[in-house]
From TrEMBL:
Taxonomy of the source species: Eukaryota, Fungi, Dikarya, Ascomycota, Pezizomycotina
Keywords linked to the UniProt accession: Hydrolase
UniProt cross-references to Gene3D superfamilies, sorted A to Z: Carbon-nitrogen hydrolase (3.60.110.10)
Keyword Hydrolase: yes
CDD domains in UniProt: nit
Record flagged with keyword Manganese: no
Chain ranges of the CN hydrolase domain: 13-270
GO molecular function, a single term: omega-amidase activity
UniProt similarity note: Belongs to the carbon-nitrogen hydrolase superfamily. NIT1/NIT2 family.
Name of the protein in question: Carbon-nitrogen hydrolase
Amino acid sequence: MATSTSSPLKKPVTLACIQLASGADKTANLSHARDKVLEAAKGGAQIIVLPECFNSPYGCDYFPSYAETLLPSPPSKDQSPSYHALSSMAAEANAYLVGGSIPEADPDLASKKYYNTSLIFGPDGKLLASHRKVHLFDIDIPGKITFRESDVLSPGNKVTLVDLPEYGKIAVAICYDVRFPELATIAARKGCFALIYPGAFNTTTGPLHWRLQGQARAMDNQLYVAMCSPARDTTATYHAWGHSLITDPMATVLVEAEEKEAIVSWKLDGARIEETRKGIPLSGQRRFDVYPDISEGKVRFDEDNVPS
Ligand SMILES: NC(=O)CC(=O)C(=O)O
């Protein structure tokens, strides 16, 4: 069987995850995010990632009051200070910016629908793509944690791939999305070199699954995975796990933060993907005569980002 080992990453690129400490003051959060994005860029990062809900506390009680109208773009500054702040940060840093996620209000305000949305900007400050969290975080572990995003949020309905012309494609999904390997596998088969997850696991599921999920998605798909959490704030209602990390295509954790504010970064290299796929040549060994190729089924992509 033929085995393709050419790398989906065209040239090395430094990726940084900012494990941001944020609080209840949106303006202060945006200004702090800008400082850290510029710090990451100064450190050499060309792709910079912010955490889930970086401009607000994380929790169902907060989503409606922090929500901004983001799409169709571009919204006005009044509708979305976060959209404009992220666009300026990307341009100032001259870097690709995966803008964590922010609570989004549906443009039809009367619908009272909200989403957990990531905006991805290019180095010129232009919006490249957006991803609304597809799998809402609804769990109930008695005595530990009950969370029901679906009480307030509506889900997104597409797989998000973003073309960064000089490097190749990335996939962006949010937190709980990482637990659904189908999204990751589709993205990998459509040629992504990295899966990027702004996320906020907690102190119950974090120690059990955060690292494992990142490593599993990297191992299954033989590409880089970045998971970017907020720093832990024990005065907040939700205690984020932290531990932002980057794994390589062999599922080795290359860098990992602790729970405090930090920037973790790594130079991603296409040769590492190629070497992994050559050594363990899964792509030529799949048995689509036994089971279907889920990436060839009816997959919903962003109309502006349909993979070739
Ligand atoms: N916060 C999330 O969306 C997911 C999470 O904490 C978990 O999967 O655990």
